[in-house]
């Protein structure tokens, strides 16, 4: 029997596309965490801002919770609908709305896939520089909701640096046009920046005006083999001192093993404990000479054991695949993920503490490390062994996450660097934010979403 609320929604928003088949409910009701059983009321697929606003107004009238949905590539349970919520998918709102050559801005609908945004910018001879491995499936709205960072944060920063303006439907059903692409605007609170990273709990981003920039100078990619965890920061410092780094990414031998098993090509004849893939500006002979000097210096110091410099775009892509293919390669193991950050200066001491903690806590589990060393962001993937039940495995991992959260608190770090809090990290928010900050967050939530209907239970409980 059809739920009467679905008929009510169809009457309230004439022509709204809805999906209610069980397969669709399962598909749209979860993200990459796969830990919660999807149970949404229905899937709404609006095609315009007016339809989004009408859906939210209907939800307020009926008291139905709404889960905004983009590419659902998140790893914190931020897009899960497990309690009869209406999933509001923006996938049909995926068009370029405007390009302004003078302002160098691109206005797009929030459902546009990141890779399509990249291509639209390139068509104008410019780039949108935020980038990560899920570019082919994540949406710009989801990137904004989590302030996504990615592989080139060293050079370009996080998503928020590139948001010139936002159009948002609040939890009360109001449409806000925030900042309007102004470069300078000191006329009160900047709600645009408040919405960035809010995980769909304050409003639904429906349009975004993105800042674009010139393409970077020619770059080259180098893969380095390292003997130990402890030398990572020395290698980073040596390369940063000589080169304009675009990216500096680290991963372990175990991570490489999974990517090779997934079809990638081995870069060296032997296996080393740790690896770095770095991309740097290389537009002339002087820059290439500087890269070689940095490499040779690190070899002399014993910080680097081997290396390879890409000789073509195809080889550069092969080297990047070794880092970017990790998440896909380990997905079948249902990994428990931690996405953490500390100040760059605190990385050596934090790495030492964390490595010891995880070695003691997970003696029987395989732990796959990788991360953005240049911005203090580490990804820790604990792989579920055969024979372990899902619940048993998660319980074991959550115990260690509590210990990890304590270490992060000591180092004044964050339990979430770029994936958001969602459902997964909600119990550990207090280790990153003070009680006073969380109280203010709740107050902001009340103002933007008076009935608490937008993505309820994410970030914190009502």
TrEMBL record:
Family per record: Belongs to the FAD-binding oxidoreductase/transferase type 4 family.
Protein species of origin: Stenotrophomonas panacihumi
Among PANTHER family, the record links this protein to:
D-2-HYDROXYGLUTARATE DEHYDROGENASE, MITOCHONDRIAL
One term of GO molecular function: oxidoreductase activity
Report the cofactors: FAD
Gene3D superfamilies reported in the protein's UniProt record? 3.30.465.10, 3.30.70.2190, 3.30.70.2740, Vanillyl-alcohol Oxidase, Chain A, domain 4
Q: Which UniProt key words apply to this protein?
A: FAD, Flavoprotein, Oxidoreductase
Top-level taxon of origin: Bacteria
Q: Where is the FAD-binding PCMH-type domain?
A: 36-215
InterPro entries according to UniProt = FAD-bd_oxidored_4_C, FAD-bd_PCMH, FAD-bd_PCMH-like_sf, FAD-bd_PCMH_sub2, FAD-linked_Oxase-like_C, FAD-oxidored/transferase_4, Oxid_FAD_bind_N, Vanillyl_alc_oxidase_C-sub2
Q: Which Pfam families match?
A: FAD-oxidase_C, FAD_binding_4
Task: Give the protein's recorded name.
Answer: FAD-linked oxidase
For this chain's UniProt record, which GO biological process terms are given? respiratory electron transport chain
